[in-house]
Amino acid sequence: MSLINITDIKRDFVLGNEIINVLKGINLNINKGEYVALMGPSGSGKSTLMNLLGCLDTPTSGQYILNGNDVSQMTDDSLAEIRNKEIGFVFQTFNLLPRTTALDNVALPMIYAGYSKSERTARAIEVLKQVGLGDRMDHEPNQLSGGQRQRVAVARALVNKPSIILADEPTGNLDSKTSIEIMNLFNEIHANGNTVILVTHEEDIAAYAHRIIRLRDGLVESDNMNKEITLHK
Fold first, then answer.
1. How confident is the model at residue 73 (pLDDT cuts 50, 70, 90)?
2. pLDDT value at residue 232
3. Cα atoms in the 13 Å half-sphere on the side-chain side of 123
C-alpha cells in the first residue's frame, strides 16, 4: 500500500536576486513497511527532500500525498499535527531535553497529542523497554552514553506509533561499534512493521536498507533494491 506518493515536487529558495532550484521535479513512491535509504552528496537536495517528507517544509510546486493526506498545500498548524501523528524523527544530534529523564523525553510527543499522564507513562515505559533501556528510564541524557541517548531518541520517535520513522544521519555522532548496535535496532523496528526512511551519506549505513534512492543535483539519479539484502531473504 502506498504510504508516500510524491509527484513532480520542486523546491526553490530565493537568495538575494537569485532563485536556487534545489529540487527539480522529484517523483517518488514509498510503500508501507519499506526500509529506504536516501543518499546523495552535499547539495544533492537530500536534506531538502527529507524536510519535505517530514512535513517540516512545503514544496514550491508538485504534490505530496502522505497516508492519504495531501500535505503539499497544508497550513503550518495542520503540518505540525501531521508531523506529530504520522512521523517519528531521529536526528544525528539526538535533540533530547538535557535536564529531563529518559522517560519524560520519550513521553513528550504524547503531551502534544493529548494523551493523559498515565497513558503517556505506560507507553513511554513500553518503548524504552523495546529499545533496551528499561533500566535507564530515570537517567538524564548526561548520565547516558551516546548510544543510549540515540536509543532514547528512537524510543521517542516510536512513542506515537507513527506511519514513518525518519532518521537523519542517525549514527553521525557515534563510534562504529555503537553505530552497528543502533542500525540493528532500526532493523528490529522495521521487522516490527514500521516504515523506515534513512538519510545518510555513508554507504555502510545505507547498506542496511532494502531500497537505496540516490539524489544528484535535485533529481533522483537511481532507485534500486538492495540486492545484498533481497538475495538473503
1. confident
2. 52
3. 21
| DSSP code per residue over 105-137 | HHHHHHHHTT--HHHHHHHHHHHHHHTT-TT-T
Q: Pick from 57, 88, 89, 86: which is nearest to 74 by CA? A: 57
Contact 7, 63 (CB under 8 A): yes
pLDDT classification of 93: cutoffs 50, 70, 90? confident
In the numeric block, the cell 537505496 is attached to 212
Given a contact cutoff of 8 angstroms between Cβ atoms, the answer to whether 95 and 110 are in contact is no
Query: At 219, which amino acid appears?
Result: L
Four-residue CA torsion sign, 144, 196, 193, 54: positive
Q: CA-CA distance, 226 to 208, in Å (whole number)?
A: 9
Q: How far apart are CA 155 and CA 88, in angstroms?
A: 9
Q: What single letter denotes the amino acid at residue 33?
A: G
Query: Which amino acid is present at 100?
Result: T
Residue 161: partners with Cβ closer than 8 Å, 6 or more residues away? none
First to last CA, the chain: 21
Residue with cell 503550518: 76
The DSSP-derived string for 62-108 is EEEEETTEE-TT--HHHHHHHHHHHEEEEETT----TTS-HHHHHHH
Q: What is the pTM of this model?
A: 0.91
Per-residue CA distances from 89 to 94, 158, 220 (Å): 10, 9, 23
